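name: query_chain
kind: protein
chains: 1
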Amino acid sequence: MALACGIVGLPNVGKSTLFNALSGAALAAAANYPFCTIEPNRAVVPVPDPRLEQLSQIVPTEKITPTTLTVVDIAGLVRGAHAGQGLGNQFLSHIREVQAIIHVLRCFEDPDIVHVEGHPDPLRDKEIVELELQLKDLETLQRVIPRLEREVRIAVNPEAARRLQALLKAEAHLSRAQNLRTLPLEEAERSYLEELHLLTLKPVLYVANVDEKSLPEGNALSQAVQKAAEKEEASSLVLCAAVEAQIATLPPEERADFLSLYGLREPALPQLIREAYRLLGLITFFTAGPKEIRAWTIHAGTLAPEAAGQIHSDMERGFIRAEVIAFKDYIQYGGEEGAKDAGKLRLEGREYEVQDGDVIYFRFAV
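structure:
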């Protein structure tokens, strides 16, 4: 499942440092000047899930495979990016390709790190980036709307008329400097807008990047970010990208002591990955056997045959039934046999909606 989150923000706010931490290696250039990232870097990161370890304690296995998430490091945006400033059109096109946005905001002072606007102000920086995305979305809509208006004038076309009304509604919202994700939409309207890959329709996670001294609670700047996120019913997370990058390079046995130096119980990166996963509307189901215990990514609401198709297309095509055990039952009763004896193994058909944590064995024939 090719799903990706894009890391965006102004130059020098910590995007590439955060990307390096996520990827566990210095794959992105983290330099003290704008546009050091010319092409978007991509990393496929495992989604932390303690349930895999719990399953492995019950089922002896040769291999444990977590599900993954693709993260794209997109070069810093600046004022005028929608019109091509600072290679803006190229970078905005990279944002268009991702399904969710991780918006990094600088919440620390450091005279040695240049800020393109002179000094850190995360709410101003947030507004700059969002305005550029809004203007790009307006540009997209204003290319499509005239064509639809002609279609509606020339012939009776109810579908085109409905599509036009949805786009006009979105245009009006953007003209008020509002992101499309805050616009109440019916399912059909959202479908029309999603076809255009509009930037401000994508779900967002705001990351307040603080300095080491501000851990673990954050500071006044990060608190302002959290309040702004709450106002628009978005998620936010406080972290220090530099510390997270250091943690990522440490051996596992040294991490606990390092975290304690900053009053942290766990790194922020697992929280960020899980929240990005949630933003994309994803859930996990498991397969468990002696060869492999594996986590699989699907959208919430996926039916059993389509979930089987994530493993192999033949399994979807020849789907017969799914043998399902809820994760808590699998653990409580010590695996498949115990859950079966307790009456917790269910036989589900084509209309079954897979739930997060289901442990499934698919029956199929081709």
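note: The chain is about 40% helix and 20% strand.
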